[in-house]
Write a structure and sequence with these properties.
Its main location: nucleus. The protein contains two helices and four strands; from the N terminus they run E-E-H-E-H-E. It is of the alpha+beta class.
């Protein structure tokens, strides 16, 4: 059984409840069943949201990337602020054997 978290996220002697990850039929055929910890998923989502807030300051109207101070215009892709995560987040994990290790 595949676990969707790094081994380093688990402490020795610590108890974690793992549940089956929700997935579509097509995802399930590709990846197989995966176990996740709801608490770890929430912590990772919160950490990612905080990082995103730090990266993107509040819009002021003067910080448009396509305009230069010299009056020139640089070529930008359409909706360039969405170019950051095209491929998505890479997941790490490990496999549990029949004896639970």
């Amino acid at each position: 059984m595949q676990v969707a978290h790094n081994v380093s996220e688990f402490q020795d002697g610590e108890e974690r409840i793992l549940v089956l990850k929700d997935s579509s039929v097509l995802e399930n055929e590709e990846e197989g069943d995966q176990l996740i910890s709801i608490q770890l998923e929430e912590q990772n989502r919160l950490k990612k949201n905080l990082e995103n807030k730090k990266k993107k300051p509040v819009y002021t109207g003067y910080d448009d990337e396509e305009f230069n101070f010299g009056g020139g215009v640089t070529k930008k892709s359409i909706l360039s602020h969405y170019d950051e995560e095209i491929e998505g987040e890479k997941r790490h994990g490990f496999t549990l054997g029949n004896d639970g290790t």
